[in-house]
Design a protein that fits this description.
By secondary structure, the protein is α+β, with helices and mostly antiparallel strands. It has two domains: 1-173, Chitinase A, domain 3 (Roll), CATH 3.10.50.40; 175-324, Peptide methionine sulphoxide reductase MsrA (Peptide Methionine Sulfoxide Reductase, Chain A), CATH 3.30.1060. The protein contains six helices and 18 strands. Strands 17-16-11-13-12-18 form a six-stranded mixed β-sheet, with helices on one face. It has a five-stranded antiparallel β-sheet with strand order 1-7-8-9-6, with no helix packed on it. α4 (240-250) crosses α5 (276-290). The chain is globular, with a radius of gyration of 21 Å. It starts with 17 loop residues before the first strand and ends in a 22-residue tail after the last helix. Residues 319-342 are annotated as: Disordered. InterPro entries: Met_Sox_Rdtase_MsrA_dom, Met_Sox_Rdtase_MsrA_sf, MsrA_MetSO_reductase, PPIase_dom_sf, PPIase_FKBP_dom. Its EC number is 5.2.1.8.
Length: 342
């Protein structure tokens, strides 16, 4: 199954593999009047069929749930954002997207070779593998001496044509944002993906000392950032208080800079507020939560600052399969136990 999610592959140093299979995560925004049109910041739910210049279909959502995303959030390729912008519910458009606005041209620097002795047996040319950090690569060459991988997207260098239909729309003015840190962001994100009323989730880093840190910099502990999940939600469907209930229930807020085996300031417990109203509600919620714990709660409550989205391979990590290739259900209301690493 092809994915419209934007790819941002880069060279890495680890070479642990697993077979690759990525599910599609779908959430349901509210319908709006057909007189309203989609624009930046709006949440949209779209059916599409994608074809190449030779007329072959490389993907279609018509046999499954529509794709949902927020226009301009960077979660889909730029040209797809453009194809949907301006449509009203029920509107359709056919749009040809150049490689520059799709997956770019093929980049030779995103090919890497290493000794076959450091890879598992059975790798063959054309096989897709997932690296230990979640990034996906295609085996270009495999012999007794060396393995060559290509981290370019499979559609890099190609123009894409999409027939799109806007099915549902929630405008940005009807949405709100919340940010929480509760240890490793993978499992916290899955908990919020499952929460009814949550439109989208994104993992990232906030409240550190530098702008736009990388995962490696955050893990060093030198930037002071926390691993967080940023949630876009519909206040008409779920309250901020309910989101806080999910937060308190997902981790132990009495352990300083630690959750389970994850230790470091990046794993601290934190509620990072976007408005004074959120801060007031968060303070009241902390006082109520303290009654449930014998040890003092050490949760940080602060205004969100220096937020940076995490690398693409971290997004929806457990729903995609985690490090063991075992996808976990992100469906609304799902109560399956969350396995931190998949």
């Amino acid at each position: 199954m092809f994915s419209l999610l934007r790819s941002n592959a880069r060279l890495i140093s680890k070479h642990t593999f697993r077979s690759f299979n990525t599910p599609v995560t779908v959430r349901r925004p509210l319908c709006v009047s057909a007189t309203e049109t989609a624009g930046p910041g709006d949440s949209v739910k779209v059916h599409y069929t994608g074809t190449l210049d030779d007329g072959s279909v490389f993907d279609s959502s018509r046999q499954r749930e529509p794709l949902e995303f927020i226009i301009g959030a960077g979660s889909v390729i730029k040209g797809f954002d453009t194809a949907v912008t301006g449509l009203a519910v029920g509107g359709t458009r056919k749009s040809r997207i150049s490689p520059a606005d799709a997956y770019g041209e093929k980049d030779p620097s995103l090919q890497m070779s290493f000794p076959a002795s450091s890879a598992p047996e059975g790798l063959k040319e054309g096989v897709k593998v997932q690296l230990s950090n979640g990034m996906v690569a295609t085996v270009l060459k495999a012999d007794k001496e060396n393995i060559t991988l290509d981290l370019n997207h499979e559609l890099a260098g190609q123009a894409l044509t999409f027939d799109v239909e806007l099915m549902e729309l929630t405008q940005a003015s009807k949405m709100a944002r919340a940010t929480f840190g509760a240890g490793c962001f993978w499992s916290v994100e899955l908990a919020y993906q499952r929460t009814p009323g949550v439109i989208s989730t994104e993992v990232g880093y906030c409240n550190g000392s530098v702008d736009n840190p990388t995962y490696e910099q955050v893990c060093s502990g030198r930037t002071g950032h926390a691993e967080v999940v940023q949630v876009v939600y519909d206040p008409g469907q779920v309250s901020y208080e309910k989101l806080l209930d999910v937060f308190w229930g997902k981790h132990d807020p009495t352990t300083l800079n630690r959750q389970g085996g994850d230790v470091g300031t990046q794993y601290r417990s934190g509620i990072y507020c976007h408005t004074p109203e959120q801060r007031e509600v968060a303070m009241k919620s902390l006082k109520a939560a303290q009654a449930k714990f014998s040890a003092p709660i050490v949760t940080e409550i602060a205004e969100v600052s220096k937020y940076t989205a995490a690398e693409d391979y971290h997004q929806q990590y457990l729903a995609k399969g985690g490090r063991n290739g075992n996808p976990q259900n992100p469906s609304k209301g799902c109560t399956d136990p969350i396995r931190c690493y998949g």
